[in-house]
Amino acid sequence: MYLYTEINISVNKASLYKGCLEPILLKLLKENGRMYGYEITQRVKELTAGELKITEGALYPLLHRLEAEGILEVEMENLGNRVRKYYSLTPTGKKEQAKAMIELEAFKNTLQLIFNPKLA
Amino acid sequence: MYLYTEINISVNKASLYKGCLEPILLKLLKENGRMYGYEITQRVKELTAGELKITEGALYPLLHRLEAEGILEVEMENLGNRVRKYYSLTPTGKKEQAKAMIELEAFKNTLQLIFNPKLA
DNA sequence: ATCAATACATAAGTAATTTAGGTATTTATT
DNA sequence: AATAAATACCTAAATTACTTATGTATTGAT
């Protein structure tokens, strides 16, 4: 039986963040060397003061896909009886991360052109 | 028979822009008063120097949805034998536009927190 | 003891697109 | 004059990136 203690009233302004999860993940791994899934969800929540909550249903499949694509590699670590999976960027992943940052810059500039045309 | 003269080699960095089309549209209509579909695709291409191309398959269904939701209203105009459909914000649409801009600001700030943590 | 937090996972459903067509008129090019 | 390109609308199937809703199991706090 499940008892939910936290009621999630998050609005669905979420759609703007679509497509951002992968660059966010790559950036965090670049900064931190290696991280595990749960840690990533918590770090994003901290960094954004709760504004952005990475759902596990989005994160875990992404981690698996990027591992399959050779962008991430994984190391298992045992904590007592539990397993923790640390992910880090492969050499390919580092190139991919750099590309993602360039694309993100272009994205931000493009938004600037549309939403703040005077400053451009 | 169809002969394609322009070969579209657009990469699929497109995913970052997912969820941005509606705020872009609302912003353009706020700035320009009224616009028609084809004009919107061209304006965005101009504004962004070709970086962002709004596809008609995305735009027209969105215009129809927003009209059905009472966010946009439409005026038909005849050009010779052709019809042009001008869209503009309803009063509801103006409120929606303002909300979208606030959400976009929050989005940009959140990205800042993740990608430029030092400047925040 | 019980609840909350930690830590992994998958699968069905949904929304915003892309891709790939389609029709028709008007303007430019050869 | 004929052809191509641009203008102007449209839709529907497929894809993508998620959300929502589950599930299991361990560990730490009250």
TrEMBL record, chains A, B:
Domain of life: Bacteria
Domain Transcription regulator PadR N-terminal: 25-97
Cross-referenced InterPro entries: Metal_resp_DNA-bind_regulator, Tscrpt_reg_PadR_N, WH-like_DNA-bd_sf, WH_DNA-bd_sf
Protein name in the entry: Transcriptional regulator PadR-like family protein
Gene source species: Niabella drilacis (strain DSM 25811 / CCM 8410 / CCUG 62505 / LMG 26954 / E90)
Top-level taxonomy: Bacteria, Pseudomonadati, Bacteroidota, Chitinophagia, Chitinophagales
